[in-house]
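Case 389 in the screening queue. Each case pairs one protein sequence with one candidate compound; here the compound is zinc ion. For every case the pipeline is the same: read the inputs, emit a complex structure as tokens, and attach any notable structural observations.

Predict complex for case 389.
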Amino acid sequence: MPNSLTPREILETLVAFPTVSRDSNLALVDWVEGYLADFGVTAHRVYDQTGRKAAIYAHIGPQVEGGIILSGHTDVVPVDGQEWDTDPFAVTERDGRLYGRGTCDMKGFNALALAMVPYALSLDLKRPLQIALSYDEEIGCVGAPHMIADMVDRLPKAAIALIGEPTNMQVVTGQKGSVGWQVHVRGHEVHSSMMHEGVSAILEGAHLLSWVNDTNDRIRAQTPSVLAAPFDPPFSTAHTGTITGGTAHNITAKDCRFGIDVRLVPGEDAASYEASLRARVAQVEARMKAIHPDAGITLAPQFDVPPLAPEHNGRAEQIMRQATGDNGTHAVSYGTEAGQFQNAGYSAVICGPGDIAQAHQPNEYIEPAQFTRGEQVLRTVVDMLTVSP
Ligand SMILES: [Zn+2]
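Case 389 output:
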């Protein structure tokens, strides 16, 4: 067997690949594949449509069901426009912190997961360890579903998926989902003194923004559900973050573009929000077309990340509470791939080293203490695989 790299050395290697979501991650995937092959572990790739990116997953141990998946994403957010004091694509230790893009979100966890491979191979595993590294998580969790489907097809089904997003090693059992659309309202330009003959994309778009406000009013008038109670706030929220449109104060706007997204508490269905929004779009569009047939509205789905619903006596929660000693109730409102694993039939929790407050920031870092704590916890988790279920 080859000499094992330390978790820190693996982290340094992973951070050095600038795997920003818009760029290829194949150099990193090649390296991981080689690393695994050195231990005799065969990896599987699942490419995206362009062939420029791939997820990579592997199975270590007996060919039986009931194992544990360590799940991470290989992509990182861009550093454009951010003021960094160090090279973002190198790990720099300074003031007792490890700086670098992805050290926290989430190459730190990926490094620990890969470091567990030789450790797992040194044990007499009764149940398998699976490693799953996706792509395109940061642009709406669009890479993981293909990878998960492939794993379900080709591997003995694991019982548990541990999603190692930064939680300071707290056991997070619930996560809000999010669904988003890009809206393009196409109006008809006339001088605004004759606006009855034109269609203002901005004023018609305002009727869809009213849907956002109406939706929030309707939600807040309801009593929060039991599933929503652990979240802050304990209800779903609809939002528009950006809007552009129009050219002059005296021209009815030809174009208006904005995004609409809804953060969903578990138990709610993205499809019902989409149906409600589409009904409003149809209403507004009919009136626009009555004035000018070329006017209209395009609603383009952007992302749809399912929530992670807290499980009743969930196995993943039990295992991670045992491994960490954390018995608190934690729920988060940022998106992860946990709900996608849960929807595929895995018991899932989110638990990983580092603080989400450092994610996506300039001078992103992880505290070495968190990194070490993560390693201890993962060793404990792998140790559990030496016992039959
Ligand atoms: Zn992440």
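Case 389 observations:
- Residues 270-291 form the longest helix (22 residues).
- The chain has a mean pLDDT of 96.
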